[in-house]
Every structure is written in structure tokens, then in C-alpha cells.
Design brief:
Distance between the termini: 12 Å
Order of helices and strands: EEEEEHEEHHEHHHEEEHHHHHEHHHEEH
Structural class: alpha/beta
Number of strands: 14
Number of helices: 15
CATH architecture of the largest domain: 2-Layer Sandwich
Helix content: 25-40%
CATH superfamily of the largest domain: ATPase, nucleotide binding domain
Strand content: 15-25%
CATH topology of the largest domain: Nucleotidyltransferase, domain 5
Shape: globular
Low-confidence stretches: none
CATH class of the largest domain: Alpha Beta
Mean pLDDT: 92
Length: 406
């Protein structure tokens, strides 16, 4: 069985083609045949394409804002050129999509129908950086594949078992009944990393209390207990919680009332500001990428330093909140682009958490750790750096759903 996974993020598009034998009941024999990515963050109006298959790496830069055209170019490399791995699109059996917002209705992987597409579109206002891109991928595959069998795997699903006191906002109750509640996101990543933590530490997942830190351009934490997410930092939309690359995270809602009344900004202007002009980019005035921020810090750029310091402040504050929900924690996990690659973010974070029993092995942390425990021997809390693999998790979810259908 060949499964294509499309994973559209707020600043990137990742795609992978996997092969899983039809008789692999354990889902352990999974082979990545092809992988591709698009990065829109390196330069305004430019898309960087990277593809790897057959031992061949392709890199291209295209000057365009047409995301759909760039996605089609990326996917065409599976059937064309030195990276071709398929003779035709018909070899693809299923397509799995990461869908960021599934609302309260979609709590498990679901076959994509017109009804499901309509629901994803209706929820786009709650995940404006993601759901529209997810829909683009679905529609593109409908054009490329003769009879596409597509599956939606929802980022909100893992958080669907959170207790009511963690999902309800302190607002009029009838708003909660209308669906205004905390949903949480990055669930595919948080769940995958929780499972990998148990394997790495060789302990049952239901015996561990974890705080998983998914730190990318978008960022969130999850408090995991008894194998379930019991609290998380993102809420009704992916805007709540941590300070992120371009998103502000949690702020005083009175600021929005002030901007509407006193500055006479429109809802669209505020939406643009909070989602695309805030966070690291907003404070530094230069970039949303942590690599650029830390490089600027070396040049003594004050606003870059301030952006970094604020990022660590809000991260540690939210880790403390997750620790309170768990009533203590056993493992702290760093994952995603910043979490996996920024040694200074991990070091500064753990240094401020020593009062909670977190102690880092500085040398291990500096040595590009990958799927490792980097805690010092005396640490009461294990500190892991894990490579999140949402795409593999999505492929496995699609395979499992296909077995039920078969």
C-alpha cells in the first residue's frame, strides 16, 4: 500500500510517500519512498523546494506567491525527473492530510467527503493559516488522482478527551454550548512524541506525566497523563498560548477592544496583526525564524535579544502552568523545528526550570541530540529531544482506517 501524506503548516508544506505492506498488522514496516518540502519563510515572495528520493536531492527556488502552483510542482517530481518514484499517480492508494482544526465533531481519522470538506472550510476562520492550505491540498489531489481516497487526520483529536474544566472558557455558558471552547492543536505531534517517549524510556506511557513542547513557527505545549492530553496551551484557535514566530499567543483581550474603539482598526487588520505580524517577528522587527533571531543576538541587536528573552519567559511560564495541571511531571520533551534544533532555547528554558527538578547535561544539549535524553544524571525530570514525525503518524492512521474499510 502506497500512502501519500500532505502536511500543510503555517509557513511550510511537507509531503511524504510511504509504503506499508498490506499484511503488516504491527504497522512497524513502513518505508519512506519520497519526501518533499516547501519553505516560504526564507525570503518574501520566494518558495524554496527540496525533494529527496532515489538518493537524489533536488533544490529549487521559485519566485512566486502562487502556493498551489508550487505544491503541484513539488508533487510532480514523484512522477517526473531524477526524483521520480512512480510511473503514474494511479500507484498511490490513499492520501492522508493533516487537518489543523476539526472542531468538536471530528475526533478521529475520517474519510474525506463533500461534507467533511465543507466542515473544514467552515472552520477556516478559526485556523486561517492552516485549514485553507489543507483544503488546497485536498482539491489538488482530486485533480491529480483519478479516484482519490483521501483521509483527514485532525490535529485537534488528541486533545478531545481533556476535562471540561480545561476546555471551558470563563465566559457565558451558552457560548460554550455554541462551540466556543478550547480545542488544542498539534495533537498529532504531541501524541506521537508521547508514544516515542515511552519507547525511549522503556516505560508504560500511562505511568508517565509528560510536558511535550512542540516549538516551531507555531508552538504549543501539552500536559499528558494516563496516555491522554489533559491540558494544552492553544485553545479555540491556534493563536492562543505561547509566543510564536508570527503569532502573539495569549494576550489581554482588552487590547483588542482598545484597538477597535480607539485606533479604529478593522477585524481583518487585527487578525493580520495578531497572526502574521506579532511574536518573534513583531518584537524583533526583523524575522520570525529563531535562527535569524539568535544570529542577530550575536551581533548585539537589542530587539532580537528582547524577542528571545520574551519567548523564553512565556515558554517557561506556560510550562509552569502545565506542571500545575499535571501536579508535577516526569519528562520534558522538546520537538519540532526550534525544539529539535535550538540548543540555546533548550538551555535557557531548562536553566529557569531547575526549581522544578530539571537539570540539563550541557554537553549533550550542544551535541545536536536526536531522539536522546539530555538530562543530567541528577535531574529529577528526564529531558528528551525527539524528532517529531507527524507524516509517519498520519500514514499509520490512514493504514489503520483502510484496514477497517477493507
Amino acid at each position: 500500500m502506497k500512502i501519500l501524506v500532505l502536511n500543510a503548516g503555517s509557513s511550510s508544506q511537507k509531503s511524504c510517500l510511504y509504503y506499508i505492506p498490506d499484511d503488516d498488522r504491527s504497522k512497524t514496516v513502513i518505508t519512506q519512498l519520497w519526501s518533499g518540502s516547501i519553505d516560504w519563510t526564507k525570503q518574501q515572495g520566494m518558495a524554496t523546494i527540496e525533494v529527496e528520493s532515489n538518493g537524489v536531492v533536488l533544490e529549487e527556488t521559485k519566485k512566486t506567491d502562487d502556493r498551489l502552483a508550487v505544491m503541484e510542482r513539488l508533487l510532480n517530481t514523484m512522477c517526473e525527473g531524477d526524483n521520480a518514484i512512480l510511473e503514474s499517480w494511479e500507484e498511490i492508494d490513499f492520501v492522508g492530510h493533516r487537518i489543523v482544526h476539526g472542531g468538536s465533531r471530528y475526533q478521529k481519522p475520517t474519510w474525506i467527503t463533500e461534507e467533511v470538506k465543507s466542515a473544514i472550510a467552515q472552520l477556516a476562520s478559526l485556523a486561517p493559516n492552516h485549514n485553507p492550505a489543507n483544503l488546497q491540498g485536498i482539491k489538488l489531489m482530486e485533480e491529480l488522482l483519478p479516484n482519490p481516497s483521501q483521509v483527514a487526520v485532525f490535529d485537534t483529536a488528541f486533545h478531545s478527551q481533556m476535562p471540561t474544566e480545561a476546555t471551558i472558557y470563563p465566559l457565558p455558558y451558552h457560548w460554550y454550548e455554541q462551540g466556543i471552547r478550547r480545542y488544542g492543536f498539534h495533537g498529532i505531534s504531541h501524541q506521537y512524541c508521547a508514544q516515542q517517549t515511552a519507547k525511549l524510556l522503556k516505560q508504560p506511557l500511562d505511568k508517565l506525566r509528560l510536558i511535550t513542547c512542540h516549538l516551531g513557527n507555531g508552538a504549543s505545549l501539552a500536559a499528558i497523563k494516563n496516555s491522554y492530553s489533559i491540558d494544552t496551551t492553544m485553545g479555540f484557535t491556534p493563536l492562543e498560548g505561547l509566543m510564536m514566530g508570527t503569532r502573539c499567543g495569549s494576550i489581554d483581550p482588552g487590547i483588542l477592544i482598545y484597538l477597535l474603539r480607539e485606533q479604529e482598526l478593522t477585524a481583518d487588520q487585527i487578525d493580520e496583526m495578531l497572526n502574521k505580524e506579532s511574536g518573534l517577528k513583531g518584537i524583533s522587527g526583523m524575522a520570525s525564524d529563531m535562527r535569524t533571531i539568535t544570529e542577530a543576538m550575536q551581533e548585539n541587536k537589542e530587539r532580537a535579544q528582547l524577542a528571545f528573552d520574551a519567548y523564553i519567559h512565556y515558554l517557561c511560564r506556560q510550562i509552569g502552568a502545565m506542571a500545575a495541571s499535571l501536579e508535577g511531571f516526569d519528562v520534558l520533551v522538546f520537538t519540532a523545528g526550534v525544539g529539535e534544533n535550538s540548543a540555546i532555547v533548550r538551555q535557557e528554558t531548562c536553566q529557569r526550570l531547575q526549581y522544578l527538578g530539571v537539570h540539563l547535561d550541557i554537553e549533550k544539549n550542544r551535541d545536536s541530540p536526536n531522539n536522546e535524553d539530555i538530562a543530567a544524571d541528577q535531574s529529577q525530570v528526564r529531558v528528551l529531544v525527539l524528532h517529531t514525525d507527524e507524516d509517519c503518524a498520519i500514514a499509520q492512521a490512514v493504514w489503520q482506517l483502510a484496514q477497517v474499510k477493507g
